Amino acid sequence: MRSGFVTLVGRPNVGKSSLVNAFFGRKVLIVSDKPQTTRNKISCIYTDDDCQIVFTDTPGIHKPIHRLGEFMVKVAIQAMKGCDLILFVVDASKGYSEPEKRICDLLRRSNTNTFLVVNKIDLVKDSKEIERIVHNECNLFSKSFFTSVVQNQGVVELFEAIKAAMPEGPMYFPKEMLTDRPISFQAAELIREKVLLLTRDEVPHCVAVIVDEVTEKENLLYIAATIYVERDSQKGILIGKNGSMIKQIGTLARMEIESIADRKVYLDLHVKVKKNWRDKDFIILNEIGMKDEIDQGG
């Protein structure tokens, strides 16, 4: 039996979550085209007959402009400690710049086996050029891979190399377990994903979703959640005319939560304004799981 821990790092929106979903052949992490969709360290557990791999998706490493951003970067850096393999994911279309330089410095200090993953190669003509640049700048990767989740290129080869790189070890989690997060966290993430999908402009990054209650009622799972925004105008956008937007968000989120919970779900959504919560309100930072992860990581 082989088993181990794999951490994915990179700047925001390079496709880390999409790669994990591709490894599993199903959706286990929320995705969107908005940068900084992933806010927490999220572990997804892949198990087959001869291996168990715990993939840890991390927030994109970026220059933070508020406390939430600072916490997100710290979470990503801490996730690089104590793992067996790091996947440094680079967007082929964005190239190598300051974010990648900073991550390379962190990787150098981690002294952990690292694969370079040049992702989104469908967006460029010559993906080898970005590999050459990154290797010249960093020179610390044991292997390089070129992937496109959209075109299903290189994903299988990368996954097989990950399995081969895992040390011999035990199963750390039950075989049927897919994530280390409870249904309340998964529900909150799916609700936030639908907000990202359906809204534009200033709304997505100002949204936090907190599940207030999860109650089993016969064959029904009742979930009450609050969507927090920073301004009254954002609240109006989320509610929509005659409640049309919040209804659409709720319908899409409920369908996916039901597939995870394997039962009918009643989703009760509310929208509240909490001004400047990303900078000043540690209660909400704690509720969405950021502060606890920082405290646990030291």
Task: Offer a few descriptive terms.
alpha/beta, six-stranded mixed β-sheet, Rossmann fold, GMP Synthetase, Chain A, domain 3, 298 residues, three-stranded mixed β-sheet, globular
Short recap of the structure:
Helices cover 39% and strands 23% of the residues. The protein is of the alpha/beta class and 298 residues long.
Coarse shape: globular
CATH class membership of the largest domain? Alpha Beta
Low-confidence stretches: 291-298
Work out the count of structural domains.
2
Rg for CA atoms: 19 Å
Task: Describe the protein in words.
This protein folds into two domains: 2-165, P-loop containing nucleotide triphosphate hydrolases (Rossmann fold, 3-Layer(aba) Sandwich), CATH 3.40.50.300; 183-297, K homology (KH) domain (GMP Synthetase, Chain A, domain 3), CATH 3.30.300.20. The model is unreliable at 291-298 (pLDDT under 50). The strands form two sheets. It has a six-stranded mixed beta sheet, with helices on both faces. The protein has a three-stranded mixed beta sheet with strand order 7-8-9. It is α/β, with parallel strands linked by helices. The protein has helices spanning 16-24, 67-78, 98-110, 127-138, 155-165, 183-198, 232-239, 244-261, 277-280, 282-287, 290-297; strands spanning 2-9, 42-47, 51-57, 85-91, 114-119, 143-146, 208-217, 220-229, 264-273.
Q: What topology emerges from the helices and strands here?
A:
Blueprint: E1 2-9, H1 16-24, E2 42-47, E3 51-57, H2 67-78, E4 85-91, H3 98-110, E5 114-119, H4 127-138, E6 143-146, H5 155-165, H6 183-198, E7 208-217, E8 220-229, H7 232-239, H8 244-261, E9 264-273, H9 277-280, H10 282-287, H11 290-297
Parallel strand pairs: 1-3, 1-4, 4-5, 5-6, 8-9
Antiparallel strand pairs: 2-3, 7-8
